[in-house]
Amino acid sequence: MKTKGITLVLIGAASFGFTPIFVKTGFSYGYTLGQLNITQMLVAFAMLWGISIVKGLKLKGMTKGDVLKVVATGTSVGLTGIFYYGAMLYIPASLAIILLFQFVWMGMIYEWIFSKAVPTKVNLLSLVVTLTGVVFASEIIGGDVAELPTIGLVLGLLSGASYAGFIFFSGQVATKSHPILRSALMVAGSLVLMLLVFVREITSVPLGDGRLWLIAFGVAMVGAVLPPWFFAAGAPLIPGRLANVLSSVELPVAIISAMVFLSESVSPLQWFGILLIILAIFMNELGESFIRRKKGYREKIVHE
Question: What is the pLDDT at residue 111?
Answer without folding.
Answer: 80
